[in-house]
Amino acid sequence: MGIRALSAIIKKNFKILWRSKFSTIAIILAPFLIILLAGYAFNSSGVSGIIIGTHSGSYSDLTEEVLAGFSNQNFAINKYTSKEECLDSVKLSKTQICILFPTDLSETGSLEEITFYVDNSRINLAYKLINEIEGKISEKGSSLGVGLAESIVLVLSEAKESLPEQNSLIESSKSKSDEIKSLSGSGISLSDIDSAISSLEDAKDLANSSELKAKISDSISDLQIIRNSTYELSGNIDKIDSYSEEISSSLLEVSNNLDSLIISLDSAKVLDAEKIVSPLKTRIESVNYSTNNRSYLIPTILALLALFGGVLLSSTFVLKERKTRAYFRNFVTPTKDFTFFLGNYFTCLIILILQFAIVFAGLELILKISLLNVFAETVVILLLALTTFVLIGTFIGYLFRSEETTIFSGVIISALLMFFSNTILPVETISSSFQKFAIFNPLVLVDGALKKVMLFNLSYVSFLTEIYFLLGFIVLFGLLSLIGIKMTKRML
Amino acid sequence: MDTELIQFKGVSKKFGKNVVLDNIDLTIPEGKITGIIGASGEGKSTILKMIVSFYKPNRGNIFYLRRNIKKGRFALSKIFGLSVEDGSFYEKLSVKENLFHFGRLFHVKRKILRKRVEEIIGLMDLTKAENTLAGDLSIGMKKRLDIGCSLIHNPAVLILDEPTADLDPLLREQITNLIKKINSHGTTVILTTQLLSEAEDLCDRIAILYNEKIVEEGSPKKIKQKYKSSSLDDVFKKIFSKKGRKTYQESSEKKSKVEKSKKKSSMKKSLVVDSSKLYGILDKLDKEGKDGD
């Protein structure tokens, strides 16, 4: 292979690079500045500087209370006089969310909904705001619901306690009704009166004295009157009997219903108002050790630095070499094409390693983010990532002939890899047909592997798949780059 | 009798559909200066690049000391030193750094290389500029550096593509003398040129390339005798009148097609400039002929 020739190529590349001091400093220090700025900028958790736009026909005490809660969370509140104004404020980015409260929102609730309007084009922020603000309102809604539920539960408890008493009253009424019924059965019989009248009429016939007969007739007449009254009474007693029967049956039914109601009330397991309002309690916990935005961002920034650094540096390097007067002479020397390919690769890799060494030093010393516990794993992933991206850039460098096209293509390809990754939107939001390819995007693989290592301290086994795919890309783009060298030779 | 160092036997070369060389036979003797003369786009540079195996013939074979060069590209590359018209070195490296770099690429041993670099710097008269960046050198010095880079591995054959193109008469003389000096050390020199007087003065042997073929080959003296001419300019005039001179446009179109096929872009000089040189001479000759008549 010619180690001496290889070292000569690398040495030559560095000599040439060193003679463009400004470029060298820019190449080496740019990633360091990026990571430093990002590190300081995202050294926070949650969101800040949020302005909430609100509108309501009439702000009730409850609405004001909810808004005061937001103010306590350092959210600024802007009240708008119309719904349209409130919506426009979101469109014009004057506010990040618009909340429409129902007129005179009261603690007893409202049929109208509390409506949130967010700008979905800022999807990450939109979800975060909806989570935070809806959470706050739900919290308030729950506490109101608990209050309402408590009063219902209190009424139920009272009913539960008083119902057995009521039931015993019904029972006693029923027994009295039964008593009335039994009493009604012991009344005077009409046939007895009729036989008494008949006996008196017989006695009258036998009587000799007119005076006696008259008295017997008077008695018969009195008995007739009694009989008629008894007849009437008997009819009324029958009615009482029948009504008493009905009352007893109704009281039995009420008593049975009360019994089942008491059983139902007794069987009610949850009488805790809080449990009635939200029987399923939820809690969201992060699996990350840190909640600082910066910690989530560092792996992605490192992956992006590897992508842009690798692709742009190597493509520019290859093209610059192709454009030098000396390019032709390289091919008439006994040094093999593969040695030139390796020379370019190692030069770019050394520069990028230097960049990352400075970046790591900055993370450790300035931002106080230590990667020492996962250093070996991080280095392995980054070496594979840099190799992949350098080879993609090398291929681009051989593919195009003009500097402008090469840089443009390098930027476009890097941007494409970035768009179809988790950087802007999660890969899961991409349509399924594209998602099939996006999951094999080298940036997604590198970002995923770095997150596994840097955020969750996972071992090599967890990112073996990513390693295999990156090795596949290395072989593919290595071969394509070698074909590129052959192609450019034909163009000379 | 001269030793046949390089032989082209029935060699043809095409770029896409464009035939550049058609079944040519050419012999280059050892230790001499051989000039290949022809208009721009006739395939002179292609012949040189085929000798160093940069291009492979579509048909025919090229032999170096009866050994087919196709079969030993890497071994044979140490035998040849090629200098192209535009120069081939790193402008951001100094004279010395360029020589060391190419010496290493030619696998020259460390101890020998150091000595060789000193020799070349002396031979090329670049001692005062050895630490100057190549990009800051004068045109003449750049040309000498380029030739120096081609000689760093002490090749048996030095191949120069238009070594005196774009140089003023003084620089041209310097380079011509340098070539003679190099040749005097036993190095075989093959060069292309469009300057017929230079070829006549410098070359022991010339080959005239016309319409994809070698139409004449031999020493300038013999060729002049054959055409009963006093100069190569006159020989050219006769060849063109006999075989029919291609128009300037035809020549331009052909080169353009070839360049397109090679997908070559801005690195090459515009063919209009190149072709115009030789055709300028021919136009001048036409005019002189008419005046003579």
Give a quick summary of the entry.
The complex is a heterodimer of chains A (492) and B (293). Chain A is mainly alpha-helical. Chain A is built from 16 helices and 4 strands.
- Tell me the strand order in the biggest sheet of chain B: 6-7-8-3-9-10
Q: What is the helix fraction of residues of chain B, given as a range?
A: 40-55%
Quaternary state reads heterodimer
Radius of gyration of chain B: 19 Å
Report the mean per-residue pLDDT of chain B as an integer.
82
Q: Output the structural class of chain A.
A: mainly alpha
- Quick one: how many beta strands of chain A? 4
Number of helical stretches of at least 4 residues of chain B: 11
What is the H level of CATH, i.e. the homologous superfamily of the largest domain in chain B? P-loop containing nucleotide triphosphate hydrolases
- What's the order of the H and E elements of chain A? HHEHEHEEHHHHHHHHHHHH
Q: Number of folding domains of chain A?
A: 3
Q: Write down the Rg of chain A.
A: 48 Å
Secondary-structure element series of chain B: EEEHEEHEHHHEHEHEEHHHH
Number of strands of chain B: 10
What average pLDDT do the residues of chain A reach? Answer: 84
